[in-house]
Amino acid sequence: MASKLKTIIDSLFSGSENIYSLLWWDDPDGKIINARSFVINGHDSIPIFSSEAEAKEQLVGSGYEKNLVSVRTSLLASILQKMEYTVLNPGGASPIQFKSCVVKKYAEKN
Question: What is the mean pLDDT of residues 72-76?
Fold first, then answer.
């Protein structure tokens, strides 16, 4: 993995701030969390956003605003393990697509 990408991912997932993604629950009392994915650059990818402001700016008018959730980095890393790709700030000026397996070390240990 390129050094710059590793630095960005380490900074994003090791910080104390939550990350934002498009998530929903079929059952509010259930333990299954669904993540919205899109085909981006030919890969089924989960969009994540570095801040609430970035997310709201990129989602405006998309119809997905209601699925925006603030989530602990370790929980999101656990969710991402089920997907092959992730895209950071997909609607921003410089989206970053990476293989989701690189966040495995940040996943919750349950």
Answer: 93
